[in-house]
Amino acid sequence: MICIRCQHDSKYPERKDTHTCPNCGGRFAFEPRENDPFTDMAFQKAIDKVSAGGQVKWGVEHLYYELCRKPRIANAKVALLVMLLFIGFFMGFVVGRAAPAVLIVYIPALLLLLYMIAANMGTKVLPRGDFERMWDLWGSVHGKPKGVIARKPQDDKPARAPDPDIGDYSFDRAVICDRARTVDLLLANNFHFENNCAVLSMGGYPQQAFETVRRMLRRNPRLEVYTLHDITPEGCRMAHRLANDPAWFKGLGIRIVDVGLRPVHASPFHKLFEKSAQEVPSGGGISPDEAKWLSQHRLELAVIRPEQIVKRLFRAMSQSQQAARAATPLLGGRGATGRVAGSAAGVAAGAAVLLPAAAMAGRQDGQELARQKKQAADQSSSGGGDGGGGGGDSTWEVDTDSFSSDADVSDGGADSFG
C-alpha cells in the first residue's frame, strides 16, 4: 500500500502492528487488509477528483458519491466466480475437443458466470454510516481537506436595513435550488459573482438575504430564472411552483428554465438510485412517466462532480439566453437604455456574500423599468401561457440537454468538457 506522504509502497507485515508507514512513520487512515473498502491513496484521489485538483470548492456529499463511483470488487464471492470462469474455459476447451456437443452446456454456463461477475463489480453504494466513519477517521489522521465547504452558522440577529436605493437595483438572472447545500456550492465557487445572478433556495436560504433578494427579483420583468435540484417530487415541481406561486413569479411574465435534474437525466447513475417511499401523482409539473419513476426512485444532484455542475449550469444559462434573444430580442437583450453596471468597488464588496445585493446588480432607470414591465405584460397578454398547466403568465420549460447522459457514472461528465 502506497503512503500518500512519501509514496513508499509498504507490505502488510511491515505496517500491520502500527498502521504506520515504515519509511516516514506517517499513520495510515485505512487498512484494506482489515476490511476497509479503500486505501488512503484511493481516498485522496477521490478528493482530488471532486475538487478538480484543488480548483473547485466541494461538499462532503460529493466525495461520498465519488467513492460510490469507484469500481471495486464487492466481496470474495466475485473472486470465486472469476476462478470458476477460468476453470470453465479450460474444461470447455479440453472436453470440447473430445466431445463438441458438450459445448452446448458449457457456453451458456460461462455466459452466466460472466453476467454474475459484471453484476457484482463496478459501482456499489457505500453505506452512509461507513462513509461517515471513514470521513471522521480521515480528518483525525490527515486533517480537514482543502476546499471542502463548511457552512457558517446562520446569524439569528435581524438582517440590517437595506440601503435606501436598493429598489434601483436588480439581477439579470437567478438560480433557485432545492437544497441549501447546492446554494453553498454555487456561492463558494463564486458562481453568483461571475455570472451576475442571485442564488437562493426554495426554503429561504441564505436567511438574511432571502426576502430582500426575492423582492428585487420580482421587480425585474427581464429576469431569467433557472432551477437546479435533485430528482425528487419536490425538485421536479419547482419550476411549476415558481411560475404559479404568487410569492414568487405568478403573473409577472418571467421565463423559468428547469435545467435538472429530472428522471430523463437519471439512467447513467442507475446504481446510485435511492428508493422512494411514496406514490407520486402526476401533475403540477410532473408527467405521468416521471411520476412512475419518482414513485420508485430518487437521485441527488451531488452524484455529479462540482466542476461539472458549475460548467453545465453555466452552459444551460448561456444557451437559454441565446434562444431567448433570438425569440424576443427586446426582452432578452442586454444594455438597455438607462442601465449601468454597479461600481467595481461595490461588486468586490458584495462578492463574498449575497448582500449587499445592489453590489452585484445593475441600476435601473425608473422609466426604463416601467417600460419593461409594460412590454412584458403586452407579451404575456398576446400568448405567454403558463408553460406547465397552471395559472399565471410566467412560463416554465425543461432543458434536457445541459445535464444529459454524457455526465455519466464513470467520470461525472468530464468527457464533454475535455
UniProtKB/TrEMBL annotation:
Residues 365-418 are annotated as: Disordered. Residues 382-393 have a biased composition (Gly residues). The chain crosses the membrane at residues 78-95, 101-118. It comes from the Bacteria. Keywords: Membrane, Transmembrane, Transmembrane helix. Residues 401-418 have a biased composition (Low complexity). One of its GO terms (cellular component) is chromosome. One of its GO terms (molecular function) is DNA binding. This is Uncharacterized protein. It comes from Hyalangium minutum. The lineage of its organism: Bacteria, Pseudomonadati, Myxococcota, Myxococcia, Myxococcales.
